[in-house]
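Example record

The entry below shows one chain as it appears in the dataset: sequence first, then structure tokens.
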Amino acid sequence: MRRDLYREMFTQESYYWWHVGKRGLVKGLLKKFAGLGQKKLKILDVGCGTGMTMKDLSVGNEVWGLDGDLAALNFCRKRGFKNLTRADLSKKMPYHDKTFEVILCLDVLEHLKDDQLPLREFRRILKPGGILVITVPAYPQLMSRWDEVSGHYRRYSRSNLESLVVRAGFKIKKLSYFNFFALTPAILIRFIKSRSSKKDYASDFVNLPSWLNQFLLFLTKIEKSVINLTNLPAGLSFICLGQKND
């Protein structure tokens, strides 16, 4: 990912609707499928970025972070985290078999040329019955300059993601689109930007008026409640929960 985007993420993660909404969705599904809040979990956040997800999950749990970028890990250290590892996800992960109850891989797989090897490694280092949570961008046809700036090799279809997770040895417990309400605006914004002659592509996470950010946060809470009950038929992203098959 472009280095300036890490600083933006570090600043925005605590309040921006996109980040807060995704973390809320992940936490809600972990409560339902992994017993979050009912027992102490050993959690690995793969591609931990600037560490806000780790901070959200750190109360009552043992949380570890892994990222391939030193700049990201330095931001995690600013949040006070020490259980951090720098590693290349194209290689074997530096953890023993059956180490973690939960692995998070949030908006990471699209950055990797080989997205199958990490999933096999996740299965190896998960304990029996462990939960893997994945988020990825949806709809290959929506590949844009923002994906290029973000370092994405691909976007996913439902069948692509499902096949990837099952081949790696996981039973799918949940597979849903999310950010349904953001899909149409994102398509329009990216179409407009694609027509621009500017060489520099600014972040899609534009500054918003407080009232608009709060309204979008409200929509993410509604969406979270719906996804806890059923799967959405469309959205800008996917969330998938897989359980280790033994």
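Notes for this example: The chain has one domain: 3-244. The chain has a mean pLDDT of 92.
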